[in-house]
Specification:
Chain B: Pfam families: DUF1800 (PF08811). The complex is a heterodimer of chains A (415) and B (426). Chain A has 415 residues and is of the alpha/beta class. Chain A is 35% helix and 13% strand. Chain A contains 13 helices and 12 strands. In chain A, the strands form 2 sheets. In chain A, strands 1, 5, 6, 7, 8, 9, 10, 11 and 12 form a 9-stranded mixed β-sheet that branches. A 3-stranded antiparallel β-sheet of chain A has the order 2-4-3, with helices on one face. Chain B has 426 residues and is mostly helical. Chain B is built from 21 helices and 6 strands. Classes of the chains: A alpha/beta (415), B mainly alpha (426).
Chain lengths: 415, 426
């Protein structure tokens, strides 16, 4: 596809069109990104991983709901969904009523649910537990994220991994550097002498303080990204206000406008941008009170963003190699608190979507009659899921990234 | 850290003091000595007149009324955030810097609170105790209306405990992870039951019948416990002082923790009065504070306010369009005041040095500098820009980069503000 056709293709496709244009932000970048992708396009056979982080601790039991279980009905009382309310998946489980798109994917065997995912000695702190999931090092502190360590095994080009949020998530932090980050609003840089001067600030300076060296490297990485993707903007910048964030209970981090984030990712993948791992996020899952309405609204947002993404990905060669991982730092306490919410808990379900995914249930459902204190016992270690994705989607050696971890989830990705 | 340490020259040490306890030097600030600068920073601040934000109206059920209420709230938030940014630029003492620090420490977001008035009341509390006693500050925050709305305090009752505030108070505000058990969290929640806040009222109210009077077992001790008793017990825990002092160090000095002997001296200064000003004075006296290696990545707000001070621009004097670009620019860099990403506050260090933040930073610097009077940048422009920004010295890399825009003072200062030597406080 030549550059002009690509430009047209990107302008015409995508949910992003309307949203991005309304914000007035990304027109230049959409155009310039295309030039980019034509220089070092993504191999149409390469697997691509899209990581969706749900910040705040999503209540797994009200996501994949054991509605027919008397213990669940008893412990959850008013917070419980009745069997006729949920979207039946079989084996006594049903999806939250907000997830009608996921149910459609399930029926087409394009959605996998790994049940009871967690890790030994669960931590109930948002920050510790999210750090454990993002660094994949339970039991020890690590300063690198699991995909950051994967980046470290490659050639040092930050564009292999991309965050579409302004602050890079820890899962992308590597020893040698990290991923690139392109917020939904995109990037614009000056041209002429100011552009040259700014770019020159990215040169390494011998003997410099490590943080200053890192600041310089970020400027160099920025230009590397823009040089690959973009022509410098002529004249004024085009930054514009972000949409007013939707107001939702969010005391534990995470992004919003998931649909816009994913539309950006879809455009980049289809344009052939050579990125293999993307990170997006949705916040607001810390539902200590009045959980039912809030969580259902968030799951509806998740469903409404991911279902069209999955359908859109199905339509192109590159898209058919995309696998989406959806996880949260922990599930919630089995017993509801009387504020119609739940406190921090342990294991929860992980979702995988995409054409390479073997749809259906994987792993065992934690039993409600066999709790650890008031909490679910994990049946699958999350590193087994990561290892499978590293090996089967990113064609990497999982043991190198996961400190020798050897587990896998068998038959999760199709042969 | 101290082995082979290179100590800063006096002028650079004064600059560091202004960077870390304030928002950076203004013109003339670097001509004072270290002791005088420290005294000025720790002196009491003049009283400030905060904007008047009427209590939000509860919207009637219809869509139109809701829209109007949302717009009014957004307008109040904008006025408040703009006013605060202006305060930060104007304030000569450490008060606003510490008010900002406490906002990040007891991180509360308007996103869920949905009451700029309650956020402003909390902000006043931060300012009133900014350099005072942590005992008073923590005691006020545990029953602060915005905090109760943020961490579900309203839902924490005898009949139905909600652990959120109790947990975060211990984990993030006053003790640190690893120094309490899950049992302590569940028990502590009981002590905080009964306090409720609304978006309209300025103080939280205690409802006796919602309070759990049963005995509470906290840190192995059992007895009746109310909110002040809980705060006292947590602050009296042997690990609390080191945690609080460590957080001050982390944000004001270095993202590397202080050596044990330094921490001991600082907690001694913090003392039984939990005295923040005395702690800062002790930090300034540490040799490690003068170590040239003790660098700190400026948070976006700190970077922006420092730049505004250096180029002598008050945000309140900016045209509406530029003020809007300031808000957008901060959002692009990932830090919007009154909206921390989570109760854990904002990230630090490398998180601010991303590629996209770099692009947003330059855009913002250019917008801010556009209206500045830069007649001071002229004879030797690259050197003049260094003096204006209060940077100790330019590296060869930066000097040669800036030479390319020496003929255009505005571009020069904007790009210089993005140099690693300015973005990272030396």
């Amino acid at each position: 596809m030549d550059s002009v056709t690509r430009r047209r293709f990107l302008t015409l496709t995508g949910v992003a069109g309307a949203g991005a244009l309304a914000a007035g932000a990304t027109r230049v970048d959409w155009g310039t990104l295309m030039t980019a992708a034509s220089d070092t396009p993504l191999d149409p056979g390469a697997g691509v991983l899209v990581v969706v982080t749900l910040y705040g601790g999503n209540d797994g039991l009200n996501t994949v709901v054991p509605a027919g279980d008397a213990v669940y009905q008893d412990l959850r009382s008013d917070l419980a969904y009745r069997p006729e309310e949920v979207l039946d998946l079989g084996e006594g489980l049903g999806l939250n009523p907000g997830m009608t798109g996921f149910k459609g994917l399930w029926d087409q065997r394009r959605l996998a649910v790994v049940r009871g995912v967690g890790y030994p000695e669960p931590d109930r702190s948002h920050f510790r537990s999210m750090a454990i999931w993002q660094t994949a090092t339970p039991g020890s502190a690590s300063t690198t994220g699991w995909l950051g360590r994967w980046l470290d095994t490659l050639d040092g080009d930050p564009l292999h991994a991309l965050s579409v949020e302004p602050v890079a998530p820890p899962l992308f932090a590597g020893e040698k550097g990290g991923a690139a980050s392109f917020p939904v609003n995109g990037l614009t840089l000056p041209g002429g002498n100011p552009g040259k001067a700014f770019k020159a600030l990215g040169h390494a300076q011998e003997g410099e303080d490590p943080w200053r060296a890192r600041a310089a490297k970020a400027i160099a990485d920025l230009h590397r990204g823009v040089d690959t993707f973009a022509e410098p903007a002529a004249g004024e910048d085009r930054s514009a206000p972000e949409d007013e964030q939707s107001t939702k209970g969010a005391s534990a981090g995470g992004g919003s406008a998931l649909g816009r984030q994913l539309a950006m990712v879809a455009n980049l993948i289809e344009a052939g941008v050579p990125t293999r791992a993307y990170s997006v996020s949705l916040g607001g899952f810390d539902t200590h009170a009045d959980e039912r309405g809030t969580q259902q609204r968030l799951l509806t947002e998740l469903d409404g963003a991911l279902t069209p993404f999955a359908d859109r990905m199905r339509g192109t060669d590159r898209g058919r190699n995309v696998v989406v991982l959806v996880y949260s730092e922990f599930g919630r306490r089995v017993r509801a608190n009387a504020g119609q919410g739940t406190d921090h808990g342990t294991a929860g379900p992980v979702f995988l979507l995409g054409e390479p995914v073997a749809g259906g249930f994987h792993g065992e459902q934690p039993g409600l009659a066999d709790l650890d204190g008031d909490d679910l016992k994990a049946t699958t270690d999350f590193r087994d899921v990561y290892a499978t994705l590293l090996g089967r989607v990113l064609a990497a050696d999982p043991a190198r990234v996961l400190d020798g971890h050897r587990g896998n989830v068998d038959h999760l990705i199709r042969a | 850290m101290l082995g082979g340490m290179t100590a800063l020259e006096d002028r650079a040490a004064v600059r560091r003091l202004l960077d870390r306890f304030g928002f950076g030097p203004r013109r003339g600030d670097l001509d004072r000595g270290f002791a005088e600068t420290l005294d000025r920073l720790l002196a009491p601040a003049a009283p400030v007149a905060a904007p008047d934000l009427p209590a939000p109206e509860r919207p009637a059920g219809n869509q139109e009324a809701k829209k109007r209420a949302n717009a009014a709230r957004a307008d109040q938030e904008e006025r408040f955030a703009g006013w605060w940014l202006d305060r930060m630029v104007a304030e000569p003492t450490a008060t606003e810097r510490l008010t900002w620090f406490w906002h990040g420490h007891f991180a509360t977001s308007e996103q869920k609170v949905r009451s700029p008035r309650a956020m402003l009341a909390q902000n006043r509390t931060f300012r009133a105790h900014a350099l005072g006693s942590f005992t008073d500050l923590a005691g006020a925050l545990v029953v602060d209306p915005a905090m109760l709305l943020w961490l579900d305090g309203n839902d924490n009752t005898a009949a139905a405990p909600n652990e959120n505030l109790a947990r975060e108070f211990m984990e993030l505000f006053a003790l640190g992870i690893g120094h309490y058990s899950e049992g302590d969290v569940r028990e502590a929640a009981k002590a905080l039951t009964g306090w409720r806040a609304t978006r309209e009222q300025d103080a939280a109210r205690f409802t006796d019948k919602r309070h759990d009077r049963s005995a509470v077992t906290l840190f192995g001790r059992t007895g009746p416990l109310d909110a002040p008793g809980f705060v006292a017990a947590v602050l009296a825990h042997p690990e609390s002082a080191g945690f609080v002092v460590g957080r001050l160090w982390f944000r004001l000095v270095s993202s590397s923790p202080p050596p044990a002997d330094v921490l001991d001296r600082l907690t001694a200064a913090y003392g039984p009065g939990r005295d923040v000003a005395a702690t800062l004075r002790a930090i300034a006296a540490e040799p490690a504070f003068r170590d040239s290696a003790t660098t700190l990545v400026k948070q976006p707000v700190e970077w922006l306010v420092g730049l505004l001070r250096a180029v002598d621009v008050r945000p309140s004097a900016l045209p509406d369009k530029t003020r809007k670009r300031v808000r957008i620019g901060l959002a692009g860099m990932g830090q919007v005041p009154l909206r921390p990403p989570s109760v854990g506050g904002w990230p630090a260090a490398a998180a601010w040095l991303t590629t996209s933040a770099g692009a947003a930073r330059l855009t913002l610097a250019r917008a801010v500098v556009a209206g500045a009077d830069l007649t001071a940048v002229g004879g030797d422009p690259v050197e003049d820009a260094r003096v204006l920004l209060g940077v100790d010295s330019w590296s060869d890399r930066t000097r040669s980069a800036l030479e390319q825009v020496r003929g255009d003072p505005k571009q020069l200062v904007a790009i210089a503000a993005c140099a690693p030597e300015y973005v990272v406080s030396g």
